[in-house]
Structures are given as structure tokens and as C-alpha cells.
Amino acid sequence: MGNEKTRTRYIGRSIPQNDSPLKVTGTATYASDIELPGMLFAKLVTSDRAHAKILSIDTKEAKSVPGVVAIATGSDFPFRIGIYVGDRDLLATDKVRWVGHPVAAVIAETLQAAEEAAEKVQVQYEDLPAVFNVRDALKPGAPIIHEHMSEYRVFPAFSPVPGTNIANKFVLKRGDAKAALDKAHLVIEEEFRMPRVSHAFMETQTVVALYRRDGVVEVWSSLQSPFAARYLMAQSLNMPVNNVIIHHPFCGGGFGGKAGLGWEPLVALLSKMADNKPVKLILSRKEQFVSAAVREAFIAHVKAGFEKDGKFVAYQADFIMDCGGYGDYTVNVSRTTGYAADGSYDIENLDVTCRAVYTNQVPTTAMRGFGYPEGHWPLEQLLDRAAARLHLDPVKIRLVNLVKPGESTTGTGEHLREDAGDPRRVLSTIVKELKPNGRIPESKEPWVIRARGFALNVKGPSQPPNASGSSILKFNEDGSIDLLVGTGLFGQGTTTALCMIVAEEFGLPLEKVRVPFERGTDSTAYTWQTVGSRGLFVDGNATLGAIREAKAKIVEISSQVFRVPKEDVVVRDGAASVRGRPWLKIPLSDIAMAYTYPNGNAIGGPLIGTGTWTSVLNSYLNPETGQGIPSIFHTFGGTGVEITLNLLTGEICVEKGVQVEDIGRVINRLGVEQQMDGGMIMGMSISLWEKMQVDGQGWVTNPNFSNYYIARMKDMPGEIRKVAIETPQEDGPWGARGVGEMTMISVAPAIANAVFRATGVILRDEPMTPETVWLAIREQRPDLLEKAMKALGGTSDTTHLQRPLVRVKSGQNETS
Amino acid sequence: MKKITLNVNGRRRTANVEDNEILLDVLRDTLGVKSVKAACWRGECGLCSVLMYGKAVKSCLILAVEADGAKITTVEGLSRGESLSPLQKSFVEHGAMQCGFCTPAFVLTAHSLLTTNPTATDSEIKEYMSGLICRCGTYNQMLPAIKEAAKHYRKHASDDL
Lengths: 816, 161
Known about the structure:
Oligomer: heterodimer
Strand order of the largest sheet of chain A: 3-7-1-14-11-12-13-24
Number of helices of chain A: 20
Number of helices of chain B: 5
Distance between the termini of chain B: 35 Å
CATH topology of the domain at 34-128 and 205-282 in chain A: Aldehyde Oxidoreductase, domain 3
Number of strands of chain B: 5
Radius of gyration of chain A: 28 Å
Number of domains of chain B: 2
């Protein structure tokens, strides 16, 4: 990791998250741990049809189960909600849109009773024609999944197309891509795909809600963005925003899946139905897979044009995203995929379309880095492909095309600021750490190939232009500080980093600065959401504002006490002192509640600092061309991998990983490393193994961790090298940019590039399971497979082989 | 309904349980031991791991009636007050957790490994811990945390940890 630049007390050091002692002793309270007096339990009844009209719901038998309090159906909540497109029912009203769609909710005194009753709810359906893939959904005459789209409330940045299944269409245009492709020296046309994946946060979505008798709703929820949840809830319940209180206890993972609309409004209304008793809903793992929202699947048809020297002159891309039954957050995923499709490259001619399309599949939402893993999967592979065709080095072709901060304009027409980062240094650092052109030790088994590959990435937070944040610093009697910020806490470590900044600025020991772990929207400062790696930047800047305000007050008071000009007062080491006269010094504890003169007169008062931050540069993007400024910063980075590929089994193992990000300034080195390692491992898991399998009727066939494999400790690479480059951004807190999501984006294309580089085999689909990789080798390089079979001592005739020799992990084969 | 007795972290606890009730639910819901987490309810993620007679088991796969009379240790039982066990301390110092939801299970499982095999190699540790899932992917911090703590287990191999 980078070198220390100035002597600091905390900034740049490795500090464990300050909630660690609670977590390691099992005493951190998560939403699922919360119990209230008289609490009831809810259980969902979900659809077993993909697309069907609801004819009737018979709850008579269910209601006779002892302990049942009430049963809610869609007709109890006749309205729609959503964060970007208001397309969601709380429970299905007229029809169901996918297998797993919640149709009813049972409230009972015990979970067992609720579960028993849920099984006894009888729903009569009339099947409607269903559509399971985006190409069918786009055909003229396709079944329409949202007939009333024209009535939906839509956030200004999005463009649904009523009368079709298109939830949003985003277009990015720059130059003349068609003309440039016609003239290009080399054109590569290709199709890439990604499947639905589950966030698989370990704590399933859990909500405890209490609809109080004074009309105030209190919610304890496992969620990322308490304020966004509060606003949506107030909207859907049609009540003043301050009558909704969202408590944010510890949260067992989010990864974007707990950022959009959750289950809070439903459970609140269930509490109202149940005579204002608290109600708890905890999703089962299967419900989390099939009834909640997951990451969307997509198909990208791309055409890339290059000059002889490797110059990337034109990019035409058509992304079609399968957003499933609801488009809610995925419309923003499609917008981001569209505007960020050019990655970190300066491509003069762009013609990118990205459509989010409804199907009768599990609905989808944001997931770590959304829009960027999607765009980088094709883009970074195209660069390696073009390099091979043009006999250029993959490093060289990137050097030809990388944006130049200070000079380049991005695809959306944003002049890239000079301090945006140093993508060239990112690239050279990957080369240094990975040595992609160095000698690769040969494997002992001739059927195993060792290979190196890399891919770059760039990402900024995807948020509305007016997404803001705030911060409040409260001093206590002893000069210690409570920092009130709204950014959620689910493992990213943002609040620890913010405490480090405050402690550094005032010269206080870190334990004297605390962010309350469990916070409520009524008792902490506002921030729009906890998403997009925006927390440190937005809430950090707001906190710096609060620090400035508090310092100004301290300086004001001390200058009066010392009878010196304000300019002569400095605040450091937990005290205010006079420059050049160190004996004139007041500890912060003596100012915190009011400074008291020896005669008892006092000045000042309890010290509070407040700060806010809103971007002044961002705007909505032009609906015809996608031009505008969407992001508050761009973090440039990249991933390198050394893999082994077993030709006989198709199994890929990541032996070594390299993670490089230009994050401006390291605040907490340990936090950065956690993100880099975590992003590597999650990225590897998703790109090699994870896929939600769906049968012909729209049933997810692997909604569990036996058949949906997630990386375990034994799967982690033997070594992960992590380098944080520090090109400070002038308007970042201490120069910092976000890092959390960035670390996952380029893992998949880096692996695919390693395979391509060693074998020439093109991998178009994620996940790169043994079976898909093996089939690709057999199709594209049968000679390699024959050689490997011979080396094993077997037959070289591979024509009879339909499957790889061994299955490596349960649940990852297409046909299992 | 059957009345069972458990020794949980050294305390005698009784509970009336249904024949089909799992140990996980009895610990979490009846006895209020909230460090035992539920995340898959079918033995796949390992987050409900507890020590039963010192050995790590998945409490969602054990019927409460089967555990009658058993000595159960949860992560609360590894340390007292504000002082942390060497393993817990090592987890904190290495930053071996992000969201923390899986942490109690990883700590307990590592404890179970190191009490029986304090000289476990990297690959033995990885294999042993692979019944559990950490979705945040904090494995690269957990491995050195466990290895560091192993020193303490080797030193006190004969003590009752």
C-alpha cells in the first residue's frame, strides 16, 4: 500500500472497525435479534405461477389455525410504490408476475402458527402467457407484464415505454459510431451474457415494525439506507415523513440488495392490521432467493471498432437487462450501464443503448458496483481480443486508449478533472505486481495451464444528482465527541473512517470519537442512501463541514479568552492554543459546555458543529444522448489474476490476485484491504460459480447454498496483493474517493482475459463454471483437449465426450 | 412437548420443546442466545454453529431433544466481561470481520479446530472453516487471525480453554 505523505495520527493507518468487540463476542444486535413485547410473526404466501390472474384467495381454513391474528392480501393495500419507478405492489393485487411473488401475508402469535396457516391459504389462479427471456419479452405481441405502466410514478431520470415490457431505455450517443465502424481497421462483434445472481447477504431481510397508536410508525430493519426507506414508507403510507422512524441496528450484509425498497411498508401495515402490535417478518433463505430482489441478468450485443495502432474508435453496444417482475431499482442499473459503458477509455464514437425489460422472473435490484460489472465484462475482454488480433500487447492497447485526466472528456461529455486519478499508474502497478508478460512457471500436470490476465475498472457512485448528506458533531463534557451521520453500517467500515477523520482533525484519541452503532432516522443526520461507495465521500465531506463549524466556534471563544486575533488560534491535540505561545492553551473539555472564567462568568455553550454536502456539478442526463455529469468522482483501478485452468475438467482456480485502486487517499488502510480482499473473493465467486437456475415454468431450482455455491475459505487465492494509489482529489475528504464496490468490477474480465491469453478461448458467459469453460475449450480449441487427453494417457478422441471428466463443485453445472 | 436440560456456557438451562424443534430455535428464541445466527436453516452456511461437548456442530441440524443434557458453548462463553479470548482478540486485531453476522460462528469453529489441532496448517484451517460462509469475503483476514491465535492454543494445549 502507498507511503505516508505527512505525519498523521490516524489517517492512513490500520484501525480495526470500532464495533469489532461487539461482533466478536456475539453481542452486536441485528434486526433479526430484536424482540418487542407482544410481538407477532408474519409469513408470506407466495405464488406458484409465473404469470397468472388471481381469481380468488380463500383464507378461511388458514384463519382457523390457532394463534392466527389476521391475513392480509393485495386488496388490503391498493397502491403501488418504488424508488425510481413505482411499479410494485406490497402484495400481488390483480395478478402474479413471477413464481415467488408474495400474494398474502399471515400474522400469528408464533412463527410456527404463521407458517402452518400460510400453507392453508388457497389461491385460485387463471394462467396467463408467461415470458421468461428478454428477447421474447421484446417481440411484438409479447404478453405485457405491466399493463398500467403509464399510470406509474416515475423519477425524472427514467423513460419507461408504456404498452411494451420496457421499464427503461437509456441511450448514450457521442460522435458517429456507425460511420466510424464502417471505416475501422478491425471490427469485433460479439455477444456477452450474465445470469441472475443473489446478493446472498448472510442475514436475510428482516423487519420488525410497530404501528403506534399515536400514528407514528417505528421500524427496526436489516437495511442499508434508513432515510430512503423512511421516505418511501411515508409516501406509501401517505403520512408525514417525521411520523416514520427507521431504526438501523447492525445489518448482516447488504451489497446493494438492501438499498432499494424493502419490506418495511408491508410489515408496518401488518402491524396496523394486527391491532397495533409489533410484527416481525424474517425471510427464509428460499424467500430471499425467489421472493425478494436479486441482481439482473443481461445480454449485450456489442460491436467494437479499432484502428491498426489499437485506437478504440467506435463502440456500439446494445444491453438488454432482464429486470424480472419489477423494475424498481434496475432502471437505474440500466442507466448506469449505459452511461458507463466506455469504462476508462476515450472512445470518440459511442452508440450505446441499454434497456431494462420486464419478464416473469424474480425481480431485480442494485448490486455492488451496479452498471459497472455489466459494462466491464464485455469491454475489458474486447480490448484483449483486439490486442491479440492487432498483435499488440494488452498493456499497450490500454495505454493507447486510457482517458487522460485533465485532458479527456468522458463518454457523457464530462471534462475529466486533473485530480480524478491516475489510470496509467494503476496499469503500470498491475504490470509490476502481476508481471503479465513475465515467465509463468509451468504446471506439473500437462493438462493444467497456468495463465495471467488483467482488466481495468472505473467507477463512481450512481445516484440522483441532488443526493445529499449531512453530519452533526456533538461535544460532551470531557471534550469527547458523538458523531451523528446517517450512513448505514453493514461492514464497510465507513463510520470508523469518519471517526478517524474527526479524531485526526481535533487531535483527540480515537476512543473519544464515536458514531452510535444503532441509529434512528429521528436521531441522526440525514444522508440520501448508503450505496455506490458514496459514504466516505459525501458523509466525509459533510463531517469536514461540521468540523470546520465546530472549530470556528472554538476559535471564536478562545480568541476572546486569550484576547488575540482569531487567526492566531489553532485547534490541535485536543486543545485550542495560541500560535507561538504554547503556554496559552485551553483543553477542549474546558470549552465543550461553555468556557468559565475564574470569576464564574461563562461564554460559549455546548459545542455543536453541523455540515452538509451536495454536489453542485451533477445533472440529469440528456434523455436523447445521455450527455451530462452523472458522478461525483471516478475511482480508477484494476484487477490482475494468475489462474490455473484444468483442460480436462474446465476448472479455473485463482492462485493469485492483484487489486489496485486509485482511491485518492487511504483513510483506514485495514478497511481498504478488507474491501480489496472481499471484492476479489466475492467477484471470483460470482464469476466462477454463481447463477440462479430457472426451469421452463419459471421456478428457481437452486434457491439454497448447496446448489448455489458461494466461495468458502478454501477457495480464496493463495495470495492477494493490494495496492492503493493515492492521487488526492481536491474536494474529497483528505483527498479520498470511495473504494468498496470498485474492487469487484474487474475480477471477472481479468479471469476471462487470462483464459483467452493462454488458450485463445473466448468466454462469453458468466459464470465460468467447469462445464461452460470445458464446452468452450472443446468447441474453440479441440486440439488442446486432445493433447491433454493424450498426456493423461487416455484416448485423444474427444468427440464422444459430452461433459468434462469430473464435476468439481456441487450445484454449479447447468444440468445438475 | 418434552422438557430438556442444557448446560449453556456453564449455566443450567431448561426448556420445553416440541419433538420437531431444532436446537437453533431453542437457543435463539426460547433461551435468548442471540449470538447463534440463522441464515439458511438447512446446514449449508454454518452460521448457527455452536460447540456441543467442545465440538463445532450446526445447531439447525440437531433436534433439541437430541441435545438433552448436552454441554453447549456459544461465543458468549469464550470470554467474560470486556476481556476477549486470544482468538477473539486476534480476530479484532486482524480485522477478520466486516458485517459481523458470521463472526460468532467462525470464532467458535476456529476455537473448535485449534483446541483439537493447535498446529493446523493453512490448508487444514481452510478446509475446516469451509463449512461456513462469509459473504463479505473476509477470509484473507481470518486465516492470519486464526494462525496468530494458534500460538496461544499451542502454549496452553494442556489447559482447558
